[in-house]
Amino acid sequence: MxxxxxxxxxxxxxxxxxLSTPCSHAHLKHxxxxxxxxxxxxxxxxxxxxxxxxxxxxxxxxxxxHIALKNFNAEVIDEEGxxxxxxxxxxxxxxxxxxxxxxGYVEPEQQLPQQLSESDVIWLRNSGMCQNxxxxxxxxxxxxxxxxxxxVPGHYGIEVGDGEGVPDGFEERxxxxxxxxxxxxxxxxxxxxxxxxxxxxxxxxxxxxxxPAGYTGGLTCCPDGAKCRLKQGFDGEKKNHYLRYTVKxxxxxxxxxxxxxxxxxxxxxxxxxxPTGAKHNCLVEYDVEKSCNATNGCLDxxxxxxxxxxxxxxxxxxxxxxxxxxxxxxxxxxxxxLCSSTPIYGKGKEAGNEAGYVVAMTxxxxxxxxxxxxxGETLTVVSNYESTQLHSGVMGLFYILVAExx
Length: 406
Ligand SMILES: *[C@@H]1O[C@H](CO)[C@@H](O)[C@H](O)[C@H]1NC(C)=O
Ligand SMILES: *[C@@H]1O[C@H](CO)[C@@H](O)[C@H](O)[C@H]1NC(C)=O
Ligand SMILES: *[C@@H]1O[C@H](CO)[C@@H](O)[C@H](O)[C@H]1NC(C)=O
What we know:
24 strands; 5% helix; Stress up-regulated Nod 19 protein; Stress_up-reg_Nod19; 5-stranded antiparallel β-sheet; disordered N terminus; binds 2-acetamido-2-deoxy-beta-D-glucopyranose; mainly beta; 11-stranded mixed β-sheet
């Protein structure tokens, strides 16, 4: 039976629907692009009440050839293909990374990307700007995945599969990391989704070192396999899940204008005097302390200044915030607003509208040419959270697509 099901999954995974959708953007003057759509399933991951599952899937199904990506979005589904609601399966994040692998190389299962040998795998990060592999993904979202607009508009696209720079004997591949937390029957839902160390009974990191002083929660406390505390006597069955992801693309042509992917992190503290490659210090996560006062109420305001080596036109922008997030804004050096993105909280029970969860982020689609970043311009990322209570391991990211020509 299990085998049968795997066969079915495989069939679904290779099912590629070729749709012909004429593009409706007005600034697309003449050429009609033929958009293709592929719907794929990740390998299976098994959840049980309280379990935190963070899986790395290598060499996943992805469209081949020299193409321009127009959209990538995903959601967690169960064995029957139904959308799993966030109050059962909390999607901490999924991310998609691009790399070159030696042809014939088989990635060992459940190794972290940094554990793969450098002679077999070369990571290709996005254009900005965190140190080493931090936040190097091309795409990635969390609980907001179902309702957040992710289209790359008009004649713009993210160019991949161009074959340029691939070392001899290597090929392009894609990796998927899916981090989901099964919160059925847990004692403290917010504590489990914010990866509170006391809820997971974790006091040491993966390498056995004691946690740094003051570390109350974050990814170190909900690694793959960690269990969040359940209500006494709660019992629930194991369930199979998949990430169902939808990719849209067009074949590469001269009429596609490439965009670069930048992820700016509000925890980044730039050191301008450090050598190239070491200038950034993105921590990815931070804590919002409980704090209220008469002037500001209960508001936590965090910001970072980040210099863009090269500029261009902002084509798309969206922030990533966790529960408690109020909004995020990206400013230019003169204070002008480049994009403002706010969370939308759900109001009901059904998948896509779960009460108390961030179910969408608003996005920016500036008219191409209207929002320009200068070469060497220093941007300011601002993230706001409510601070009536502690929020551990939150994020304040800004994801932008930048075109160097219009
Ligand atoms: C928490 O972890 C400690 C060891 O780190 C263990 O002795 C204890 O039994 C655990 N408590 C629970 C409730 O699992
Ligand atoms: C910035 O980088 C320089 C050169 O690597 C280093 O000497 C200095 O300590 C760094 N400053 C901070 C605040 O980290
Ligand atoms: C109120 O809180 C804000 C943010 O936490 C802080 O920046 C500000 O200095 C505080 N104001 C007073 C009067 O304490």
